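S.,

Sequence below, as promised.
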Amino acid sequence: MFTLTGFGDEISTDLNEQLDLLQSEGIQHLDLRGVWGKNVLDLSDEEAERVRSELERRGCAGIVTLNRPKALNAITHGMVRALMAQLDAWARDDAVTRVIVTANGDRAFSVGADTSMLRPTSSVDTQVTLVPCRADYERQDPTRIVVNFFASNEFEQRFSAQTTVDCWRSFFLAEVNNIFRVRTLQTRFAQTLMRPSDAAISGFVGIVEEYHTLDQQTARVAFNLHEQGTRAKTDLIFLPEGP
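The prediction came back faster than expected:
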């Protein structure tokens, strides 16, 4: 089953115009990305309340309130389970066409997940190993490529960096650039796209290893990079001739 929705800010900056057009087209769900010329993350408390009041007035909003102000509304596993159950119930209720998430307290909306793995004594280090696809074993001439990194955090902020890979290279992301540090990303989670520079003579393949450390214990997980797209030139491997 698919849910049809739309980004209202591509209709208008005005909330009512967004809702009117979506409802006239029979679209009962809204991805509230922006309103009144602002990203939803930049709305003041008063503006957020205006959005909530309008959706409640139309009788189509389910309201979720995070209520752990002393813990900066950190989200526990129990809260996630309760939220998923409520969202499933609303998904079967035709009267609920959108969900508004609010929070009690004036210190923070939410600091995110509240789990033991995110305590101050924990860390996650990501190691990447990249190998260019092009290789010249006949002349023992290593292939050097420049790799560009594009990272996006949970707030859709974007960061970029680059590094050089000579023959092959294994490195931690935090060694490449400070964009892979929490104080720069402002979050522990990010999506990263890697691709060769426009001038690179080769593509590359790679693996990623994550090291999760909590107190004195460390766990490790490894996985292949997801590869997509095509290259304009074929990557060649030159082998020495036999006797």
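The first strand starts at residue 34 and ends at 35.

Coffee later?
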